[in-house]
Amino acid sequence: MEKVEGPYYLLNDDLVKNEDGGSYPEFEGRTVYELIRVQDGIAVFLEDHLDRFFRSAAYLNQPLPATAESIAERVYRLIAANQVGEQNLKFILGKTAKGESVLWIFFTQSIYPPKNYYEEGIATSLFHIERLDPNIKLVRSDYQNAVLQERADKGVYELLLVDGNEEITEGSRTNVFFVKGKELYTPPAKAVLLGIVRKKVFEICEKRQIPINETAIPVEWIKEAEGAFVSGTGNNVLPIAKIGDHLIPTLENPIVQAIMADYAEMVRIYKEEKKH
User: Fold this and answer.
1) Mind listing the domains of the chain with CATH numbers?
2) Within 13 Å and on the Cβ side, how many CA atoms surround 51?
3) Membrane: is it a keyword of this entry (predicted)?
4) How far apart are CA 28 and CA 14, in angstroms?
């Protein structure tokens, strides 16, 4: 069962009071979802998230019962009703037993990396598992349960997924980048979920003229990496200090530090523009 937080949630266009023991929608078949970070009352990069959400819905041949503009209006209506400053907002689109399309929007439990993770880097581990339909955000409880258990067992913040070719594809909830020389390397778009922060990293690198190579990342590359980081809605740009037992000198890498700083500034500018 989803953890719904706050006094209100949205079912299609209806603002519903979130009461203890209240009934949440029950979906049949596959559902798609989207997760958006709200900061200072602003849904960060909402337009990018909505674009991906509509693409996910089209993949399931499940039209959304609303336009992007009306969903954006609903998002800010929900933010105002719940008086949220910073928290994750989740969309789920699915069909009920009656075959009706339902768009459920609610605030969910949100745990963000502590400040020292950005200053000291995170510990990660390799995990041999492959996600089905990697370009689409499908709700998959089996996958989620497996990675939660593995993260707990290994005592790491994030897992780097490894496929049958012994190649790193992405993080369990993030995209991953490696630094070699003055260039970035990341798995190809076809093999990963196209994260919104990943997209912003590409924009930053284009402005800075930092080459990005979309290519297969063999596990052996870990030994040659001069820096590494993950990107994601709940994590922003987060440096990797260790993969398994191998230490990565990410915190000394000027390319990673520049990308982290530029992303933080990009978010700040977006929030300022949306406040006016």
Assistant:
1) 4-108 (3.30.470.10), 115-271 (3.20.10.10)
2) 8
3) no
4) 21
